[in-house]
Amino acid sequence: MTYKVAALYQFVPLPDFRELQDPLHRVCLDLGIRGTLLLAHEGINGTVAGTEEGINALMAELRQGALFQGRLDNLELKFSTASEMPFKRMKVRLKKEIVTLGDPQTDPLRRVGTYVAPADWNSLIESPDVILLDTRNDFEVEMGTFEGAVDPRIRKFSEFKDFVKNELDPSRHRKVAMFCTGGIRCEKASSYMLAQGFEEVYHLKGGILRYLEDVPEAESRWKGGCFVFDERVSIGHGLVERPEDRSLLADE
After folding, report:
1. Hey, what CATH class is 3-94 in?
2. Crossing angle, helix 184-195 and helix 160-167, to 10 degrees?
3. Between the CA of residue 150 and those of 125, 163, 234, what are the distances in Å?
4. Contact status, residue 84 vs residue 3, Cβ threshold 8 Å
5. I need a surface site. Which of 70, 157, 175, 179 has the fewest CB within 10 A?
């Protein structure tokens, strides 16, 4: 059996996020869906898996159902597949942030960097005046990244602020391009960097997942696998599972 996997997020005001937890959990259980969804005042984030019918029904509920009342009208959404169910259970968690940067002044609802479509990404990062940043954690970078990307060597996303403070300078790094798995970390990171005085900040729309889905492997600048936070461990071009990377993680 093949399972459909949906990675999704949207920054949107959800002042009632606590009241949404239990009914959203029930909807997912009724549809036979497993995975993790995070809810916070700033939006929703997560990855879930189920049958194609179940995932399609959940997406319809999120976008048009009574639960969110049309507020999730701009979901950043990527689909892939798994040969086995990649999650053990269904969890809906309440968080302070749907991706934790730890800077209360950073607000992607007010300002973010310039989105770059996957089709335009190669030409941007090949420009000699661009510094290319991988905003993911160190173990993710080790599994795969874009050619020429700077690895901040962070263990968790909240350390990205320290990397910017200690290693980057708005007067020297005038043109910054960044990427992450699905796009959500770059929403926060680009908003933070703009607030720190960096003039031009670009980020890959839809993240690595969208790039691997849209850009032919022959034209790709991506090397290795893209770590995903489920039992598949990593995926590659065409969003196909990479079983060979499971042994790499086991070795650690």
Report:
1. alpha beta
2. 40
3. 12, 11, 21
4. yes
5. 70
> What is the Cα–Cα distance from 36 to 46, expressed in whole angstroms?
6
Catalytically active residues are 180
The helix (run of H) or strand (run of E) holding residue 11 is strand 3-11
Question: Which residues are paired to 58 by β-bridges?
Answer: none
What is the C-alpha separation between 182 and 76, in angstroms, rounded?
Answer: 8
The pLDDT of residue 244 is 81
pLDDT at 249: 55
Predicted TM-score (pTM) of the model is 0.91
| pLDDT tens digits, 92-139 | 999 999 999 999 889 999 999 999 999 999 999 999 999 999 999 999
**Please, which residues have CB within 8 angstroms of residue 181's CB and are 6 or more apart in sequence?**
7, 136, 140, 207, 208, 209, 226, 227, 228
Q: What is the pLDDT of residues 164-195, one digit of tens each?
A: 999 999 999 999 999 999 999 999 999 999 99
Residue 247 has pLDDT above 80, yes or no: no
> Quick check: 101 and 188 in contact, CB under 8 A?
yes
Domain residue limits, the chain: 3-94, 114-249
Separation CA 164–CA 150 (nearest Å) = 12
Task: Return the CATH class of domain 114-249.
Answer: alpha beta
